[in-house]
Amino acid sequence: MLALRLVRGSHPLVQLRRLLVAAAAAGVGFLLLCTLGYAVGHPAHSSASVLRLLWCALPIAATVQFAVAVARTDPATRPRPGLSSAGLGPARLTAIAAASTAVACTLGSLVALLLYLHLRGDITGLPFDGAAAGLLAADQPLPLAAALTLLAIVPVAGSVAAGLALRPRGARAPAPEGAARPVPTGLPWGVALVAAGLAVETYAGRGGGAGVALPGRFDGSPGGVLAGWVLTAAGLALAGPGLTHLCGRLLQTARPGAVRLLAGRVLMTEATRIGRPLGVVCAVLSGTLAAATLYGAAGGGTAFGPLTGLGAGVVMACTTATLLTAALESRQCRTHTAEALQRLGAPPTVLRTAALLRAGALTAVFLPLTWLIGELAALPLTA
């Protein structure tokens, strides 16, 4: 009940972020229900149904990541003076964050169920009654227990992930602002994973092998190529913090001024918070670029199906929204520094120029890298 009251009394922008989480959960829930409908309508194709269910893991992971990012920036879950005496200590605030995430995801799952039933024709009286009856196996009864189980995946996973991310970690000495932060250590491992993934893709693309049915037109991709794509994406996500830290160091080279020092120091300090979602975005964009290259090499033809487009849209939207939310969280953590600079008489253009420098440095490093990885990932299947 307390979590519901906090949700109702939040700022409109906070409510908007929660609604976006609900929308993402609705998209994933609809994909899961469509997978269930395919399994009910095609009982002889059990392997294809399992493969479709496995492909839903990517949208689920992206949605859970976005839900955790929103929970971290929720003002209602931040420790404030006086809350502990009122019974709202760190553990209770973590429980509230998990409950708020579960409420938003459950709302999206309910919307997905209502939309699915409406498009099947089970709910009438609205436009587009039964518009997708053939696609959703409306001639077969819907197993309610299986549907509810699938719809519970995102709320349960989101609430558990939010609780683990915000759980109290014991008493630790607070860091003074400006203190040196540990350098991210994932860059060498990320580079190694990217190299291994590209090598696996190249070997599998030349050697052929059993085809794996992918969404859209890619029905004969070797399984080794898919494994290479996974390794490459994991490598980019792991190398993101290290590359962000490197961008901060590069900004501070060659006799920098105050603005470059400020921009570089912020990137080094926030490398882990910003670098991880940035690496995930680069992994998604490189995979999208590789898929577009393969689709163009195949000569067009049949377009991607609506469910494939929905899944890809959910992944791209959630990863981008997670990056923007992480940037907002980083800005909130630097509020005291910005106020101190303003009290010292720093002009407002200093902060804006530093922000532009950070964005430019990250773009100059990550954009060419994303394009290069995408082209190399598609090369084994287009050569």
Q: What portion of residues belong to β-strands?
A: under 5%
The N- to C-terminal Cα distance equals: 59 Å
Approximate shape: globular
Strand order of the largest sheet: 1-2
Percent helix, as a range, is over 70%
- Determine the structural class based on helices, strands and strand pairing: mainly alpha
Low-confidence stretches: 171-175, 209-220
Would you kindly provide a written description of the structure presented here, covering whatever features stand out?
- With 383 residues, the protein is mostly helical.
- The protein has two domains: 2-165, no CATH class; 187-382, no CATH class.
- It contains 14 helices and two strands.
- Strands 1-2 form a two-stranded antiparallel sheet.
- The radius of gyration is 23 Å and the shape is globular.
- The chain starts with a helix and ends with a helix.
- The model is unreliable at 171-175 and 209-220 (pLDDT under 50).
Question: In summary, what is this structure?
Answer:
Keywords: Membrane, Transmembrane, Transmembrane helix. The protein is mainly alpha-helical.
